[in-house]
Automatic annotation (TrEMBL):
Name this protein carries in UniProt: Outer membrane protein with beta-barrel domain
Entry keyword set: Signal
The organism's place on the tree of life at top rank: Bacteria
Lineage: Bacteria, Pseudomonadati, Bacteroidota, Flavobacteriia, Flavobacteriales
Leader peptide range in chain numbering: 1-25
């Protein structure tokens, strides 16, 4: 199964879960709830699933606007770097810019989130911008946010199984963040 097909399946599951949870969330969760902004500062460590990249490391800032107790809109940016071993070529750095939708699905602490945006490459040897899609699941308290996500960059260079150059890189990452109300 191709990576793009996997991403489509994950996104379809996220949308299905959002609609399945919709009736429960409409009960009285938004009554007397103060809408507002939150800011989260996080670090992400991950594993790149396509050669020549091995590891991923990044830092980000996420602005979150709570629509209700269960639903939020997000805007995330930061800096990420995909690392290669010394013999495999150059590392690749980029600035992600993503918008997203977060839905708490269990006990107001466990959530699913979908983000989309662009990855702006900062390295001089590669100048393309890439579409970025990132579904995730996570756990959040008033101050701590821990999530596991898959990010796919459709236009970043990679090596194919036959040794030729292709496009499309993915990474699985664990994000740990500190968040607070603004």
């Amino acid at each position: 199964m191709k990576t793009t097909e996997k991403i489509k399946i994950v996104m379809a599951l996220l949308v299905t879960a959002l609609f399945a949870n919709n009736t429960q969330a409409q009960e009285s969760s938004s009554q007397n709830y103060d809408q507002g902004f939150r800011l989260g500062l996080g670090v992400t460590g991950g594993y790149a699933v396509h050669d020549p990249y091995k590891l991923a490391l990044g830092a980000d800032a996420r602005l979150q606007y709570d629509l209700s107790k269960r639903y939020s809109l997000t805007l995330t940016t930061g800096y990420s770097r995909l690392f290669v071993s010394e013999a495999d070529g150059d590392d690749l750095g980029f600035v992600p810019a993503k918008v997203g939708f977060k839905a708490f699905v269990w006990n107001d602490q466990f959530y699913i989130m979908g983000e989309g945006g662009a990855a702006f490459v900062t390295d001089p040897h590669y100048h393309n911008t890439s579409l970025l899609l990132a579904p995730s699941i996570g756990y959040a308290t008033k101050y701590i946010d821990i999530s596991l996500r898959y990010e796919h960059y459709n236009n970043l260079p990679r090596w194919n199984n036959d040794g030729s150059l292709g496009k499309g890189v993915g990474q699985v990452g664990l994000r740990v963040a500190y968040g607070f109300d603004l």
